[in-house]
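so my prof wants the structure for this chain in the tokens format not the other one, which i didnt know existed until like an hour ago. anyway here's the sequence
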Amino acid sequence: RLGRVDVRELRTHIGFTSAAVERMLRPTLTVSDAVVTGKHAALAPYWHEYSDDDRERARQLLDRFGCERLVDADFGNLSSGERQRVLLARTLMSEPSLLLLDEPTAGLDLGGREQLVSLLGRFAASSTAPATVMVTHHVDEIPPGFTHALLLRDGRILSSGPTDQVLTKARLSECFGLPLDLERRDGRWLAWGAESPQ
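here's what i got, hopefully its the right format
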């Protein structure tokens, strides 16, 4: 409850990434610092001390997301896809029990998006992955392995439950306010505008 918990302590139990977090990180921050500061949910390394073990954990997380070669690079010099993978590594630095990903593929080109969706699918399949919630406006960005879905319209829950039951043509069309077709192929979802009857 707000007012009964130290928010600074609570936020270390929740890994969070969004475009807003990305914008708050200084472009001159090294990738290593961008990740290691996730331990305390801080935006810069000046307010906390980090051990060699912390730095090693940051390197391991970067390696897990294919960014080990970027450890000394400036965060602001990374491509959009690289930044998203670094932010994912950062979210895991505090070993959170909940991971919130707010549109992690936004702004990525097709290649970057597909790499990230694949990576998130492998991550979701891991027995050590924390509970993960991903916000997206595009069903094709839902990685395989994400088991449940929640459809929101006008701030209200339209449908929730197992993904196969929630994602239907009728519900998706109602959610977006236009007729849509929906298909699942090789574990991935596809949606497109349905042709209006002539």
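also thought this was worth mentioning. The chain has a mean pLDDT of 92.
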